[in-house]
Amino acid sequence: MNAPSRPEPGIDAMQAPMSAAGLAAGLIDAEAERRERQSEAQREVLFADELLPGVGDRQLSLRQGLAAGGSATFITLTALASMDELESAALGVLAPDIRDAFGMSDGAIVFISAASGAFLVLGALPMGWLADRCRRSRVVGWAGVAFAAMVFACGLAANAFLFFLARFGVGVAKSSTLPVHGSMNADTYPIGVRGRLATLSAGAARTAGALSPLAVGGIAALAGGDDGWRWPFLILGLPALLVAVWAFRLPEPPRGQYEMKSVLGEVVQDTKPMPISMEAAFARLMQIRSIRGAIIAFSALGFSLFSGGVLANLWAEDHFHMSTFERGLMGSIGGASMLVALPFAGPWYDRLYRRDPARAMALLGFMILPGAVLMPIQWFMPNGWAFMLAGIPATILSSVTFAMVGPVLQSVVPYRLRGMGAALSAIYIFFIGATGGALLAGLISNAYDPRVATLVVGVPSTLVGGYLLVRSSHFIKNDLSLVVQELREELEERDRQLEDPENIPVLQVRNVDFSYGHVQVLFDVEFDVKRGETLALLGTNGAGKSTILKAICGLGTPSRGVVRLNGRTITYVAPEQRGRYGIHLLPGGKGVFPDMTIRENLEMAAFRFRKDAAHRDERFTYVLGLFPDLADRQKQQAGSLSGGQQQMLALAMVLMHEPEVLLIDELSLGLAPVVVQDLLAIIERLKADGLTIVIVEQSLNIALAIADRAVFLEKGQVRFTGPARELAERDDLARAVFLGKEGG
Ligand SMILES: Nc1ncnc2c1ncn2[C@@H]1O[C@H](COP(=O)(O)OP(=O)(O)OP(=O)(O)O)[C@@H](O)[C@H]1O
């Protein structure tokens, strides 16, 4: 979409030729200036603490918090999560029986057990996507039904392959827990109890996991025989199914309601939300610095957390010759100590968050860091019991921190993207952290021993994870301020729409920041386009005009701000979907298939109407009527056309799509004046037909000829918005850009 390079315009270009050194110095200065603008934009904390969501809110008891959303949701979701945990632990206990029943090797059963963890990650993305698009109680219900059915299938599996398939199903069904449950809880209960609910739910799941061996072992022993292992699965399937069916009845909470209540004092409901694209959601989330930092921190911590238990068990057996029972006891004491700590951690986090979210997040980091010292101390203990006891503090600290992943992320993730935010963190934590850590620790442990593996993997990952959490906490207030700003803008927009429903602009670009990687190129860009209006986007080279078109048509996701089509937010909608809603782009440069004929090019463009012949013919008649030249030579190869004719064909192809909003990037670039005149006549026709047009144009003459209004950009910032005529009168702006480069 970028235009071919042009000589740098501007007054400077008109002065004496610049030396290479002068040019380099100019570029360095410009980049330094851009960086300064970027760091200023990022440093800015827009709102005072008490205006941030959840900060300074009235203190709520857990009972009050649960009552606010009805305790059914929390109880149902916690019951489902606990059954997940119980089921996972069951597999460990029953593994030897299953191995024998199917005549599998140790490796095969370990692989099947571990693989369901990987399936869990596979399912997280679609579950997160569903959570952000659909009624969440239904997603929870269907995932719960699938879980129950698959658990049941595990009990009925006739051979190892079918058992593997059933485990696959269990893993995918379980993947709803983090993204869907997290999102639903966050919208059902007030911000002030999120920490306590997270610890309560983690505690319940841990307890279920801890009791599982007893219950599962007991059922299998009672049933007896070679098939005794099947019964725990068959029996667990039933309560899981009942809870899942109940979940369908749970109320669907309004998205972001507590953030809105805290910031605006009321709830602004998006009654017809647009579908969110996974790519756009990820792009946006990874631009939010506290989220990016927290996700990377937790995945670093995942390197040591998930393999830590296995390595400790191996060490306890190999080095201290502890029996299975002793090791089981060691695990239980570790687990129980965490259960003791959790009831304190939740209230503490909630209290701190209400006072200062940055401190709440930083403290999580500070809690992790001592692990880097505690770990070596534990691993150099002289005997098994000392080894076990010394491990408890670090276990408590890291488990408490992990229980807070949800509350920390939910506070800053845009409420429309809660599900995808949780899915993204699941991928980082489990796929990168847990899998990467397991591989690395396994390799090092094989080459040396579990102690070396723990120290080499665990200590650095703890330091990096802790440090990143502390560092990310510096950004959280800024990110929360952006949440506030966005919510306020939504409220204003809702009021505006209620006040004047007939005059909703076709396009709205609000507070848009855009970055390529770490380089921010748009700063707080804002403008509206009314129905039937032609707006020219003008500005210096590299000012960000094409980037704005990308943000409007969905080829790029802004790091901040909103894009609306007819009053509905489309910021996270996929480009092809925006195409269906009527936004189409004519990119700069070549936009035709040169080896095809004109007719074939147009037929390609009409693909969308392939099932509606009448509509398709109508489009052909309209478009060929606009371009009689093309109509006369439909069999000619597009590559043999002149540049101007190819531009006509490209425009014709875009018009085949029946746009409501047409975005044009550089209409006249490199074309002869006579061709430009023809193109302008066509644009006039389109205007008369009521099409809304946004055009990026280098030539002021052309812009003035066709645009009703103009937006002038400089270095990523809007410097002027108003009638195109007025821009021509602003000598300072017009001269700076267009002097000496009129093309039309
Ligand atoms: N894909 C990309 N990756 C990194 N930086 C990019 C990318 N595309 C554009 N940029 C940079 O972003 C800034 C804005 O570019 P953009 O193409 O939007 O400007 P423009 O106003 O359309 O300029 P021009 O008229 O020269 O095309 C420029 O500094 C450009 O170098």
Summarize the structure.
Helix content is 66%, strand content 8%.
Features:
alpha/beta, elongated, membrane, 31 helices, Growth Hormone, Chain: A, 66% helix, nucleotide-binding, binds adenosine-5'-triphosphate
Largest sheet: 6 strands, mixed
Structural class: alpha/beta
Q: Which CATH top level class of the largest domain fits?
A: Alpha Beta
Portion in strands: 5-15%
CATH architecture assignment of the largest domain:
3-Layer(aba) Sandwich
Helical content class: 55-70%
Question: Regions with pLDDT < 50 over 5+ consecutive residues?
Answer: 1-16, 740-744
Round the mean pLDDT to the nearest integer and report it: 85
Number of domains: 3
Q: What is the total tally of β strands? A: 10
Bound molecules: adenosine-5'-triphosphate
Any idea of the CATH topology of the largest domain? Rossmann fold
Could you state the CATH homologous superfamily of the largest domain? P-loop containing nucleotide triphosphate hydrolases
Please give the radius of gyration in angstroms. Answer: 30 Å
GO molecular function: ATP binding
Pfam families: ABC_tran, MFS_1
Organism: Streptodolium elevatio
Membrane topology: Multi-pass membrane protein
Describe the structure in your own words.
The structure is a single chain. The chain is α/β, with parallel strands linked by helices. It has three domains: 199 residues, Growth Hormone, Chain: A; 232 residues, Up-down Bundle (Growth Hormone, Chain: A); 235 residues, 3-Layer(aba) Sandwich (Rossmann fold), CATH 3.40.50.300. Helix content is 66%, strand content 8%. The protein is built from 31 helices and ten strands. The strands form two sheets. A six-stranded mixed beta sheet has the order 6-7-8-3-9-10, sandwiched between helices. Strands 2-1-4-5 form a four-stranded antiparallel beta sheet. Strand 4 and strand 5 form a beta hairpin. Helix 6 runs antiparallel to helix 8, helix 11 crosses helix 21 and helix 13 runs parallel beside helix 19. The protein is elongated and about 90 Å long. The protein starts with 10 loop residues before the first helix and ends in a 6-residue tail after the last helix. The N terminus and C terminus are likely disordered. The site of adenosine-5'-triphosphate has 12 residues, from helix 22.
